[in-house]
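Schema walk-through. Below, the input block comes first and the output block second. Nothing else is stored per chain. Lengths vary across the set, and this one has 254 residues.
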Amino acid sequence: MLLAITRPPTDALTRCALTHLDREPIDVRRAIAQHRGYEDALERLGAEVLSLPPEPDLPDAVFVEDVAIVLDEIAVIMRPGTPSRMPEVGTVEERLAAYRPLLRIEAPGTIDGGDVMRVDRVLYVGRSGRTNQAGIAQLAEAIAPFGYVVRSVPVTGCLHLKSACSHLGGGLVLVNRDWIEADALQDVELLDVPAAHPGSANSFLVGGTVVMAAGFPETAELVHAAGRTVETVELSELRKAEAGGSCMSLVFET
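--- output ---
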C-alpha cells in the first residue's frame, strides 16, 4: 500500500521561516483549501493519506518532509536546521514507528529532509543553510549497512536541494543548475528547467506520476515530453511560505 503522511497548515503559516523569499501576505483559508486539493491529488494517484493533527503553534509543521526520510528498510528521523522546528519531529516519529525501524540524526548534525533526493540506492544530500556536514556524515554512516551511499551537493541559491532538483524516475533529474553545484549529480541524466521558470524544479513521484506545482506549463510540458505522466496541483499560497510540492508529504510503500 502507498501511504502519504501529511499535516494541514494553520494560521501560524503566516509566521513561517523564510530564507530566499520576501514575506508576502498569505491567505490562510486559501492555503488550507489548496492543501486539501493536494491531499485529494495524492488519493487520486492511489495513496492513502494519513493526516496528522494540526499544530497551531508551529508555523512550518505542514512541511512534514523535512523531519524524516523513509527508505525501504528504515526511516531516519532528521534534526532540522531551524531550531524552532524541533517540536515538529515527535508526532511524525511516532507515526513512522508503526512502519519502519527508526534511526536518528543527533547533535551537532542537522539535516532537513528537503535536502535529500533519492535515486535508487544513492541519496544526494544538499549541503545548505539547513543541513551541515556533520548531519550528512551521520546519515551516510547510518544507511551504509543497508546498501545506500550518500553524495553531498553544495546548495547555493535556494532553501533545499529539492528546491533545485527532483528525481523523475529512471535516473532522470529535473534541475535548475543555477541554484546548486550540478556537477555533483553524477550517474544521472539532467533535464534543465526552462529559464523562465527557475523555481519549477521541485516535484515528486507518486506511483509513476510526477506531481508538481501548477503555474509552470513549460516545465510540465518538458517533463511530459520526457515520457512522464504529470499531475499539477495549485500551491500558490503555500509557495509564499517557500513550499514546493514534495515538502508537504512523506510518501512510501508500507
